[in-house]
Amino acid sequence: MQAITPADVLRSGGNGVDEAAIFWRLRVPRVLLAFLAGASLSLGGMIFQAVFRNDLATPFTLGVSSGAALGATLSLRLGLTFSLLGLDGPTLFALLGALLSMAVVQGLAARR
């Protein structure tokens, strides 16, 4: 595997289509997707902390991750194989488990 530097891409001037294509069609979209994923995760964390009004709130400390794991495990153990809107059973059950556990935590916090 050979590294392609930005200078190689600029030097090609359109003649080396392969190097430019690799750079623009593979590497740039991956960098942009990584940036978008990181921004989404940070925004999700900020919303999570704002909803619970707790600067230390994380999916792990509030049990949301465990609820998602429980939902996915139930789906796999029950053998539920289906797809809805492009999402498979374990993914949907993980989402439902996370939402249910978050609702329980929010309900318990509201009682206080």
Question: What features would you describe in this structure?
Answer:
The chain is elongated. It is mostly helical and 112 residues long. The protein has helices at 6-12, 17-52, 64-78, 89-111; strands spanning 83-84, 87-88. A two-stranded antiparallel sheet has the order 1-2. It folds into 2 domains: 1-53, no CATH class; 58-112.
In short:
This protein is mostly helical.
What number is the mean pLDDT?
86
Specify the helix fraction band. over 70%
Compute the gyration radius: what is it?
22 Å
Q: In which order are the strands of the major sheet placed?
A: 1-2
Features of the shown structure:
112 residues, 4% strand, mainly alpha, 2 domains, 4 helices
Topology (elements, then pairings):
Layout: H1 6-12, H2 17-52, H3 64-78, E1 83-84, E2 87-88, H4 89-111
Antiparallel strand pairs: 1-2
